[in-house]
C-alpha cells in the first residue's frame, strides 16, 4: 500500500509548498473603488503574476483573519497592468475587509494604510476556452457575471489591437439577475463596450440580453411606462432590460439558424439547475451531422 500512497502524498506536499511560497509573495493594493450597494473593487499588483480570462484567486487578509482564504473571480483582463476582484459585502469576512480598506471612512486613504493581502493563484476555469470558438454564448446568473467581465474586457483589447487575427467573431451574452443591485458596476462596463463598438461601426459583434427575474407588478408597470425611451432606465444601455426568464429553446434555435455548420461554445457561470437546462438544450440543438451546428457546453457552478 505504501508504494501507492507515497507518490500522491509527495505530489500533494510539493503542491502545498508551491502554494505556500506563492501566497507569501508581496501584493500591493493600488486602488480601491467603492461601487453602489456595498460592492468594492480591489486593484492589485504582484510581481510575476500572470492570468488568463475567467480565472480565480484565493485571497487572505490577515487583518481580518489569519487563517481564512476566500475565492474570488478575477474581473480584470490579462492585457491590463493590474489584476482586480469585485467583493460584495455580504458577511463578516467581507465586512471586515471593507472596513480594513478604509471604505467606511469619508476621507481619502493613503496607500500605506491599506491592509496586507495574500494571494494564491490564479487557477483555471472553463472560461479560458472562450477564444477557441468563432461564436460563443456567455450566460451569467447574478454574481456569476464576474468571469465574463474579464472575458469581455480581454475580447475588446484583442479586437482593438488586431481584429483580423481574432478567431472570435460573435458573442451572445445573457445576464440573469433577481434584482437590480448587481447591475451597477457591470452596466458601466457594458456601456463602455457599447459606445466603443458603435464608434467602430461594429455594434453587431456583441449581442446582449439582460433579464430581471425577480420583478413584481410595480416594476412591470414602470417598465411599460419607460419602454419607449432611448436608453433603459435601469442600466442606461440602449438594449432594454427584459423581465422574466429567457426561453432557452427559442434562443438556441435562433442562434443555430444564424450560424449553420458552426461549433458554438456555451459558457455558464451560475447554479446547477440552469446548468442542467443549458446542457440539455446544447445536446438537443446539436445536429448529428459532423458538418452541422454543434453546441459545446462549459460550466462553472456556485
From TrEMBL:
Residues 19-129 form the FAD-binding FR-type domain. Gene3D superfamilies: Nucleotide-binding domain of ferredoxin-NADP reductase (FNR) module, Translation factors. Its cofactor is FAD. It is found in: Cell membrane. InterPro entries: Cyt_b245_heavy_chain, FAD-bd_8, FAD-bd_FR_type, Fe_red_NAD-bd_6, FNR_nucleotide-bd, RBOH/FRE, Riboflavin_synthase-like_b-brl. GO terms for biological process: defense response; monoatomic ion transmembrane transport; superoxide anion generation. Keywords: Cell membrane, Electron transport, FAD, Flavoprotein, Glycoprotein, Heme, Ion channel, Ion transport, Iron, Isopeptide bond, Membrane, Metal-binding, NADP, Oxidoreductase, Phosphoprotein, Transmembrane, Transmembrane helix, Transport, Ubl conjugation, Voltage-gated channel. It catalyses: NADPH + 2 O2 = 2 superoxide + NADP(+) + H(+). It comes from the Eukaryota. One of its GO terms (cellular component) is NADPH oxidase complex. The keyword Metal-binding applies. It holds the Pfam family FAD_binding_8. GO terms for molecular function: metal ion binding; superoxide-generating NAD(P)H oxidase activity. It is a multi-pass membrane protein. Catalytic subunit of the phagocyte NADPH oxidase complex that mediates the transfer of electrons from cytosolic NADPH to O2 to produce the superoxide anion (O2(-)). In the activated complex, electrons are first transferred from NADPH to flavin adenine dinucleotide (FAD) and subsequently transferred via two heme molecules to molecular oxygen, producing superoxide through an outer-sphere reaction. This is NADPH oxidase 2. The gene is Cybb.
